[in-house]
């Protein structure tokens, strides 16, 4: 007899089969581009369509009613596999990563404590060794976290521990500072506040017209911090910048940091995957000089969210980031536990997603995906600049392109596209001016899609 509240295996198998079939149809329809790329009903209306209050209150879902509910749920969202998905830096996940989510969802091995998931932890160890080798940290260490924001925080905790070893117990010295360009991801300023430095401790570095660090003026930024009575604990560079997709010049920045004994942190959340492309890895020349690097797999390595690596050149630096006491967790030899390197205790089996994508596609296959998406973005730039009315402020280095059409309201053009469900793109400021922004990330996006987008924008801009 099945114990009360144990899995009904027959129901699970039935519902799982329905889920696979439903998702297969959803991805097929999305990749074919036959449905709207985005729907944005108001939450109140959508909650009614999904019957959320009733299901929460009454329960009683069966495999059959679940199928009907799932069909509605899938329709009322954003289709990242769609060729017209050109918005945020979130991957259309490959199916091996989806399998990893399914496996972890069933077995639930939170592996920051090794005894809670030896296989999952071992997979993460090997994935990290691979990533460390790619970055150029053969003696380094790492951990996978739930997202780039948490990864930046973790890396900067390690930098704080190096600059102020007693900060964990005695509090943060009031003179610490971070050096970062104004174009740095918002999580850098957020991390400064969480770390106890405060937003005002982030000293802006001089940049060029496109927001890239001006290497020739690095001494001025350091001097500004010191004249303000600040002791810089780290310098942050982008590989690549979130807004523009442009890379900072890492080698001279790294050499400057080494000369002045500054912790060098590279936010490679989006662009570190270019290390897998022979054509593009030069964009990260000098990354091996960094003290820490973050690298998101849920962007260009095609995993589902979230998988972000924190990688350090010296393994002990990451071990120094945290201090913890809990008699129910920490006793005797901790062996292979990762909990001492991460905020999370019940950490999901994040390495499994990366591993299965690698196991299916290979390092070469993932590198080809990066190169293809970078090439498609460059093709969009070529198409746009050939058309009257379009302005592109720079040649793209990654799969992110900023552009304008005419002198009208770019935000209005974007909003119309979203309301139509025809294209999903974002916007960003370049040089203080609002631009439209595409991230060519879905494998289904081709020249036909890009030409259609340009046609539609021109039509809206001329209306």
From TrEMBL:
GO terms for cellular component: cytoplasm. Belongs to the group II decarboxylase family. This is L-2,4-diaminobutyrate decarboxylase. Keywords: Decarboxylase, Lyase, Pyridoxal phosphate. Its cofactor is pyridoxal 5'-phosphate. The keyword Lyase applies. SUPFAM superfamilies: PLP-dependent transferases (SSF53383). The lineage of its organism: Bacteria, Bacillati, Actinomycetota, Actinomycetes, Streptosporangiales. The keyword Lyase applies. The modification N6-(pyridoxal phosphate)lysine is found at residue 299. It comes from the Bacteria. GO terms for biological process: carboxylic acid metabolic process. InterPro entries: PyrdxlP-dep_de-COase, PyrdxlP-dep_Trfase, PyrdxlP-dep_Trfase_major. GO terms for molecular function: aromatic-L-amino-acid decarboxylase activity; pyridoxal phosphate binding.
